[in-house]
Amino acid sequence: MKTxxxxxxxxxxxxxxxxxxxELNEGSYAHxxxxxxxxxxxxxxxxxxxxxxxxxxxxxxxDQLRQVIHxxxxxxxxxxxxxxPEPIAPNQPSARKAEGKRPxxxxxxxxxxxxx
Length: 116
What we know:
- The protein has helices at 8-19, 28-74, 95-100.
- The protein is mainly alpha-helical.
- The radius of gyration is 41 Å and the shape is elongated.
């Protein structure tokens, strides 16, 4: 964005008001409006410069963040070997058969099944 000239806002305001039927004549109020427009244009220019610097800093930090993410994800370390399943001995029941069976219900002190 371009910077504003010192008197640019006042001239635009003066033209706008003239189009609406209000004319700013020389006087104390016109001088104060002109001075206020100058302060406003200085504030706008200063904030614009600050935002430009902030954008540059944010872009730098964002590039650093992207670089860190790239370094962490681009070159993965050596993959761990998957664990080998242990062979099941022929005299042991298979794991699939054991999954479906329920353990026997416990009996209470009197030797009876507990009520459900």
